[in-house]
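User: Could you go from structure to sequence for me? I need the amino acid at each position, not a summary. Structure tokens:
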């Protein structure tokens, strides 16, 4: 992302037009709080698998700070969030209070010391980076983790591994058009490779359906009250409704090719 010209993702929410808001900010603006492809259930599983109790934890791109609450419930020794968006930094800092700190920085240069955390958690953020930036962020996670530390990611995956390049391009273009973010999900094999190329060992891989906008998932993630408010906001705002229906159409069209993926990658004990 450019240093001089802020991207749409960096503008304060009030200055962004509904027509080209990135999908996660559009959904947040409409009252949705869980913005991960596998929903709350996969987040909870990811955090259990990452072993956070008494750990020094880095959360990469905490967004609205929803996962921060679940991290703190596991009683880590310390919490630091690193987030590029100023609005998101202050939202997460409000959630975390005196139990941790949130800094404004790009995930590829966190400013943390080498080997200073036991776990790094990143959800729904690597998918939206270029291949080069994915590699830079993964290398940064590797640098700040202690030997034996875990990098836990919850991202969007393409299915099956045998998809042709043309099929992958078609899905990525459709996602980019509807969610207004250059989403570049990878197949399971590709996610494994970007992590092992950086020196990680793969400890766990799990999947969940990509059902972000399916009614049953929305109710499970948000609860009935917040779901009703979200639906009312969608109905009341025609421009936002058009965007949400467009996103849902893309997710439905490619439902057999999209999944949420959890990967726990471990920094070898001797590195
Ligand atoms: C889809 S939201 C996910 C937020 C949160 N992890 C969650 O699952 O709800 C993406 C967040 O990633 C942040 N982000 C995107 N690229 C980033 C980067 N390179 N460095 C730090 N934060 C980034 C955005 O500012 C936004 O808050």
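Assistant: Here is the amino acid at each position, in order:
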């Amino acid at each position: 992302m450019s240093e001089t010209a802020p991207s749409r993702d960096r503008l304060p929410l009030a200055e962004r037009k509904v027509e080209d808001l990135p999908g996660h900010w559009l959904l947040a603006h409409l009252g949705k709080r869980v913005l991960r492809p596998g929903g709350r259930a996969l987040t909870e599983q990811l955090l259990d698998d990452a072993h956070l109790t008494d750990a020094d934890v880095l959360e990469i791109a905490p967004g609205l700070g929803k996962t921060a609450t679940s991290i703190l419930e596991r009683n880590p020794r310390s919490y630091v969030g690193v987030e590029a968006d100023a609005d998101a930094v202050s939202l997460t800092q409000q959630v975390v209070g005196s139990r941790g700190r949130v800094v404004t920085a790009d995930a590829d240069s966190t400013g943390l010391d080498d080997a200073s955390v036991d776990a790094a958690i990143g959800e729904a953020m690597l998918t939206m980076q270029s291949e080069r930036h994915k590699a830079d962020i993964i290398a940064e996670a590797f640098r700040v983790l202690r030997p034996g530390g875990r990098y836990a990611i919850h991202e969007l995956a393409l299915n099956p591994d045998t998809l042709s390049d043309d099929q992958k391009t078609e899905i990525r273009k459709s996602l980019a058009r509807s969610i207004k973010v250059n989403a570049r999900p990878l197949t399971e094999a590709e996610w494994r490779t970007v992590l092992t190329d950086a020196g990680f060992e793969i400890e766990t891989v799990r999947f969940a359906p990509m059902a972000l906008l399916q009614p049953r998932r929305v109710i499970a993630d948000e609860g009935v009250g917040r779901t009703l408010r979200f639906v009312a906001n969608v109905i009341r705002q025609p421009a936002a409704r058009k965007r949400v229906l467009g996103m849902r159409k893309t997710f439905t069209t490619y439902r057999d090719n999209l999944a949420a993926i959890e990967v726990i990658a471990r920094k070898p004990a001797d590195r």
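One structural detail worth keeping in mind: Strands lie at 56-60, 78-83, 101-104, 117-123, 145-158, 186-187, 201-209, 258-266.
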